[in-house]
């Protein structure tokens, strides 16, 4: 195995089971998030917001069960009500100790009925992107007041991560880094193994290092399959001379990591070194462009221009990156069609690629946090081409 360095911090040869530190998110953190949401609710001319998306409920309360609704009042927690069903009576008492709780199976309907009975929620919003037309009609009939389509308010808050969220992301990235190091150092990448075998091995190692679940179905793509951006692992057998693309992530306290690294089995061919070095330079340009105030389309352009100038524009057919957090793909979108600017505290990926159909492809991806001056890199595995 050979490792080359361009001076970035590396995770080389870390081994052993990682005992991760629990990321403690205290009730005050959730209360602060609800207070921030209250400001957005009032600015939207609303009295309250009915939250039904479970990830948004987790963000606002800490609740991790499979059924819940939350009626957030713009005036504060005194009139905010959380609802789940009896299966989660004990769990919700621990996770949501600071809000009034109602136990009803049909949680959203129960809160809508409560709002209709009490009449203090007036003009309220609901997460229209997560509610069917049929459910809206039922909610609206029970609510009594004016129920207004209000998509994206909580997601607007989730764009910028607080330090507790970033710590969870950091630990998720560490679990993935250490899993990759273990895989390589213990001979998990060699001719004769299948893509599926490697994927299962890598995912089990992430669990060993503190991941709750995999962030997504891991991509292990060998040989010509590495030219397929979102290839699903198959029974294809790794062979000498192959590029092997590994795109994978861990999850800690609900927060996801996302990383892509390349390995070549045996001495790289000239064409492999050429496109790897090109993507390496493109990725570095993209990372350097990740700054507060940067236009997301301009960040994409900074990376894409490096590849286009080398004559491979048509071989980079996807966006540069995306936000990452409670979802592995969330706003903002770093793409030619992306809209908006970056802010300090956003967590994003930078993942350019060059894909040569029938031969092989390269993608290099990091998860990082937008910071003043220079982004904080969370995925620390070497970005040099690893030769095994």
UniProtKB/TrEMBL annotation:
Q: Name one GO molecular function term.
A: aminopeptidase activity
Report whether Kinase shows up as a keyword of the record. Answer: no
Output the Gene3D superfamilies linked to this UniProt entry.
Creatinase/methionine aminopeptidase superfamily, Creatinase/prolidase N-terminal domain
Q: List, as start-end ranges, the regions of compositional bias called Basic and acidic residues.
A: 1-11
User: Which InterPro entries does the protein's record reference?
Assistant: Creatin/AminoP/Spt16_N (IPR029149), Creatinase/aminopeptidase-like (IPR036005), Creatinase_N (IPR000587), Pept_M24 (IPR000994), Pept_M24_MAP (IPR001714), Peptidase_M24B (IPR050659), Peptidase_M24B_aminopep-P_CS (IPR001131)
CDD domains documented for this protein: APP-like (cd01092)
User: What are the UniProt keywords, alphabetically?
Assistant: Aminopeptidase, Hydrolase, Metal-binding, Protease
The record places domain Creatinase N-terminal at 33-160
Q: Where is this region: Disordered?
A: 1-20
Which Pfam families does the protein's record reference?
Creatinase_N, Peptidase_M24
Q: Which residues form a coiled coil?
A: none
The protein's superkingdom reads Bacteria
Residues covered by the Peptidase M24 domain? 168-371
PANTHER family in alphabetical order: AMINOPEPTIDASE, CYTOPLASMIC PEPTIDASE PEPQ-RELATED
Query: What name does UniProt use for this protein?
Result: Xaa-Pro aminopeptidase
């Amino acid at each position: 195995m050979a490792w080359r360095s361009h001076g970035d911090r590396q995770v080389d040869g870390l081994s052993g089971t990682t005992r991760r530190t629990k990321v403690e998110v205290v009730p005050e953190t959730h209360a602060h998030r609800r207070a921030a949401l209250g400001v957005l609710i009032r600015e939207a001319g609303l009295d309250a917001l009915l939250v039904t998306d479970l990830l948004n409920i987790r963000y606002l309360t800490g609740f991790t069960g499979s059924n819940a609704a939350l009626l957030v009042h713009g005036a504060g927690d005194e009139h905010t009500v959380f609802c789940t069903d009896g299966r989660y009576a004990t769990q919700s008492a621990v996770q949501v100790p600071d809000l009034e709780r109602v136990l009803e199976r049909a949680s959203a309907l129960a809160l809508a009925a409560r709002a209709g009975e009490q009449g203090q929620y007036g003009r309220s919003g609901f997460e229209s992107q997560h509610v069917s037309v049929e459910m809206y009609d039922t909610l609206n009939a029970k609510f009594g007041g004016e129920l207004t389509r209000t998509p994206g308010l909580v997601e607007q808050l989730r764009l910028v991560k607080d330090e507790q969220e970033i710590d969870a992301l950091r630990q998720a990235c560490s679990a993935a880094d250490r899993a990759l190091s273990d895989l390589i150092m213990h001979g998990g990448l060699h001719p004769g193994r299948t893509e599926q075998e490697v994927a299962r091995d890598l995912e089990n190692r992430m669990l060993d290092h503190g991941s709750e679940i995999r962030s997504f179905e891991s991509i292990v793509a060998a040989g010509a399959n590495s030219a397929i951006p979102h290839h699903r692992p198959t029974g294809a057998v790794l062979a000498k001379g192959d590029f092997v693309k590994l795109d994978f992530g861990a999850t800690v306290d609900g927060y996801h990591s996302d990383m892509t690294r390349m390995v070549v089995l045996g001495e790289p061919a000239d064409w492999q070194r050429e496109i790897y070095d090109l993507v390496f330079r493109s990725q570095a340009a993209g990372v350097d462009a990740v700054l507060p105030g940067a236009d997301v389309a301009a960040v994409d352009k900074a990376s894409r221009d490096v590849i286009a100038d080398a004559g491979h524009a048509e071989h980079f057919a996807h966006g540069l990156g995306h936000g990452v957090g409670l979802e592995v793909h969330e706003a903002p979108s770093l793409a030619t069609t992306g809209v908006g600017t970056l802010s300090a505290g956003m967590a994003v990926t930078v993942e350019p690629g060059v894909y040569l159909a029938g031969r092989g492809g390269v993608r290099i991806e990091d998860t990082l946090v937008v910071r003043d001056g220079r982004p904080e890199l969370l995925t620390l595995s070497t970005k040099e081409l690893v030769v095994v």
